[in-house]
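> forwarded from #structure-qc
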């Protein structure tokens, strides 16, 4: 059984122990995750323990329960607050209500009353949890999001942003024809109409063009998808034999002619060649853009098939944005084996075509350029990777086969990856060292926090906390407290300053809290420590 976690806060140990032992927590669905005797200690524990419910007294030293509640709402907004107090004070109750407290209980605490309150809180927590887990609600939300997700996926294909491993599953999800042996892209564009000649609002022109394409192309294509992208109506058509691409051209022609009459404006169209893989749709999209430009020059009202106006471009190699992201992500994050596999998969796509060596060399130069950009982003020395007085074009010129190029590229990628990972370890150590130096320099500032330390270091608090704990073995709060207490011990030994002066010097605004933390750490108060 999964229990909800409770943090109990009261400055009187007798009351804390009484509450803990008087209630059968497990039968109510709870467990005591921890307890604290003041608000400051409770805040530190809450950030570490992540309780579901905080039961707190209001009147406490160092930080009262209401102030604790406000700070908890900032860091743990879903936590449920139960306040108890020995005072029937309207102002207290009013502030508790503003903090969305689930209950305000007066002392002395009746265990039966508290148990009933906890049952109500558990019911509330159960409802919230069930709502988050409600499969039907999630399914409806998912179905509602599908059209947007589908359009984002199609745009990602056009821009070459979808990783190869994601395409097949997502294509099936969005009902893209799995039987298609190839894919083509068609673009339709209708220019704006002057207000005095407009049949309807210019904003509706792409919608009308999209509807026309969906209706007309049913007679010309066996499968297609239509969406609006970058001011054009975009068609992704699944094709088979060559006759099917010509049929698509005829269909786009018909849309241009019919919509020119309907809209009263010029309509142009462009159709790409067929590409064998969805990964290559970015190339097809560029071809369709080129064809659309030709259509605009020719005069509109008909579509241009790119193969009719430009030489055959089907047999070529291209290193695009998606390839760059794939290889640089592998170099930054993957293992040596995974990097070599990624490089191998890049070169395997050329096995089915026979090309001049120069085209492979151009591909490798583009790939190498992306790696050099990565080196510079990390501030790494290119000579360390390629050797002194290197000239990577000269190196590439001496590689006489795609296999030689692949092996050279894989070796370079692994070398860069090793260098980046070594630098990352060094950077983490340096970050922790800089943080420690900053703490030792500013420990006397009572306002010193993770937030202003991270602003100084220019890192996020989440990343800093992870790195600092890994490198030092302790949290920021513990390290800061330990630093302040060590300095306090030094001052107690070396000076005759009053303990409240020492408290201020080491960053404690509240002398009593300094005494409390000191005693908790060393077992005696600062005064007794000095006397001993």
């Amino acid at each position: 059984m999964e229990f909800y976690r409770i943090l109990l806060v009261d400055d009187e140990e007798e009351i804390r122990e009484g509450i803990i032992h008087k209630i059968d927590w497990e039968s109510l669905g709870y467990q005591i995750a921890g307890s604290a005797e003041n608000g400051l200690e409770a805040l530190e524990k809450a950030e570490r323990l992540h309780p579901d419910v905080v039961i707190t007294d209001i009147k406490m030293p160092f930080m009262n329960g209401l102030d604790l509640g406000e700070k908890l709402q900032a860091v743990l907004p879903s936590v449920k607050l139960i306040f108890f107090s020995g005072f029937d004070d309207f102002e207290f109750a009013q502030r508790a209500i503003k903090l969305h407290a689930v209950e305000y209980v007066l002392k002395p605490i009746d265990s039966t009353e508290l148990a009933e309150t906890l049952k109500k809180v558990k019911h509330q927590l159960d409802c919230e949890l069930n709502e988050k887990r409600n499969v039907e609600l999630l399914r409806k939300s998912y179905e509602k999001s599908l059209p947007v997700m589908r359009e984002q996926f199609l745009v990602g294909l056009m821009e070459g942003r979808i990783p190869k491993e994601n395409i097949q599953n997502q294509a099936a999800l969005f009902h893209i024809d799995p039987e298609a042996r190839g894919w083509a892209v068609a673009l339709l564009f209708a220019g704006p109409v002057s207000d005095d000649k407009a049949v309807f609002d210019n904003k509706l022109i792409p919608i009308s063009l999209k509807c026309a394409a969906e209706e007309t192309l049913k007679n010309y294509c066996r499968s297609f998808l239509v969406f609006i992208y970058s001011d054009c109506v975009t068609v992704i058509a699944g094709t088979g034999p060559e006759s099917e691409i010509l049929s698509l051209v005829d269909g786009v022609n018909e849309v241009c002619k019919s919509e020119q009459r309907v809209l009263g404006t010029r309509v142009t169209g462009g159709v790409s060649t067929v590409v064998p893989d969805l990964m290559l749709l970015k190339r097809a999209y560029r071809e369709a853009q080129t064809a659309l430009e030709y259509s605009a020059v020719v005069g509109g009202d008909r579509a241009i098939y790119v193969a009719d106006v430009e030489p055959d471009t089907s047999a070529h190699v291209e290193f695009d944005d998606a390839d760059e992201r794939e290889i640089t992500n592998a170099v930054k994050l993957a293992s040596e084996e995974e990097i070599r596999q990624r490089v191998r998969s890049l070169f395997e796509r050329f096995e089915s075509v026979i090309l001049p060596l120069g085209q492979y060399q151009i591909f490798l130069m583009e790939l190498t350029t992306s790696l050099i950009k990565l080196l510079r982003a990390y501030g790494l020395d290119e000579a360390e990777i390629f050797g002194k007085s290197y000239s990577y074009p000269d190196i590439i010129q001496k590689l006489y086969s795609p296999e030689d190029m692949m092996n050279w590229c894989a070796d370079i990628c692994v070398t860069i990856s090793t260098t980046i990972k070594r630098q990352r370890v060094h950077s983490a150590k340096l970050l922790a060292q800089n943080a420690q130096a900053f703490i030792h320099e500013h420990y006397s500032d009572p306002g010193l926090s993770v937030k202003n330390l991270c602003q100084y270091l220019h890192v996020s608090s989440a990343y800093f906390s992870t790195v600092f704990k890994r490198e030092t073995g302790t949290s920021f709060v513990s390290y800061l407290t330990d630093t302040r207490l060590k300095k306090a011990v030094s001052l107690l030994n070396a000076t005759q300053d009053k303990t409240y002066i020492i408290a201020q010097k080491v960053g404690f605004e509240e002398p009593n809290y300094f005494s409390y933390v000191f005693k908790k750490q060393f077992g005696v108060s600062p005064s007794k420590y000095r006397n001993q």
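QC bot note: The radius of gyration is 34 Å. DSSP finds 24 helices and ten strands in the chain.
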